[in-house]
Amino acid sequence: METLKSIAIEQKVFSLAFNKGAPEAQAVIVVEKSRSKTFRATTTEGGARWMSRFLCECSATNCTSSRYQDLRVSIVGIVRNNNRGIYVEFSCFEKGSKGFKKVLCFSAGVNQEGWAKAGLEFLFVLDRDLDLGCQNYKAQMYKKEPSASQPKSFNFNWVSRKRPESE
Q1: Using CA atoms, how far apart are residues 157 and 113, in angstroms rounded to an integer?
Q2: Which CATH architecture is the domain 2-142 placed in?
Q3: pTM of the entire predicted model
């Protein structure tokens, strides 16, 4: 197991790693470390991707709770509040196992920036298409502008088509 990304939010460090050779329901390991305790949850790649997106969504909107399910795992994400502030609690269940739920708590940080930071950083590790898309976008941004004599190319895939109006 190799840790791919670690993020510090307030007094906690969250780590993400792939568990090669493990069953699909345990393909990704997310670890929460505080001063005195360590919590660990395993999930599918899809589950970890959903958790990352949920953190991003909560950093930008007023979300309360949501649920993810696939063939192997079920995850419930709930925004909670205590005397230390607001946080997202993920309860992870492996379907068909006799084990208990695994709980991870992500602190919001200042202005929910902790959620945004963790969500985006984990998404870049998990979603290879997202990373490739960002690289392509950056490459497009740094391309030289065509000169006036060169025709500009037009991407017809981005043309929106109008829906026929209903009568």
Answers
A1: 35
A2: 2-Layer Sandwich (3.30)
A3: 0.72
